[in-house]
């Protein structure tokens, strides 16, 4: 991809501002719904979904997916474990790590929360953007995310 001149970049600060503010507002609105209906917050929902979709993941795998530190990931997992939603199991191929999985309660919770989350997104986004716009934005963001991840940009240092 060709480098852009500073004259072509005049809308990028606005793009960044809109992107971050939309993400924050959507995250907060979904956080409120999940807390009210299921007693969890959005970050817990995301972790539970990841564990549902990636059984046997390690803390390092979860940290890499969410671009957060291993220590913060481990503490977040501890809270899920304390609530009875997830468990650590010894990793037979590496004694220094554990394999993470959901309990039956965790699976039931994430499945119920998924319906609330999806309905909330449909209401928050679907009332404003048509399907073709959502598809185009989703494709653009997936491409940007892939490029950032490929170049390991924005990864935590600790």
Show the helix and strand layout.
Blueprint (H helix, E strand, L loop, with lengths): L11 H27 L3 H12 L5 H8 L3 H13 L3 E5 L7 E5 L1 H23 L4 H20 L8
Antiparallel strand pairs: 1-2
Helix pairs in contact: 1-5, 2-5, 3-4
Briefly summarize what is shown.
The chain has 158 residues and is mostly helical. The protein has six helices and two strands; from the N terminus they run H-H-H-H-E-E-H-H.
Please name the defining characteristics of this protein.
158 residues; two-stranded antiparallel ribbon; 2 strands; globular
How does this structure look, described?
The protein has helices at residues 12-38, 42-53, 59-66, 70-82, 104-126, 131-150; strands at 86-90, 98-102. It contains six helices and two strands; from the N terminus they run ααααββαα. 15% of the residues are buried. Helix 1 crosses helix 5 (104-126), helix 2 (42-53) crosses helix 5 (104-126) and helix 3 packs across helix 4 (70-82). A two-stranded antiparallel ribbon has the order 1-2. Helices cover 65% and strands 6% of the residues.
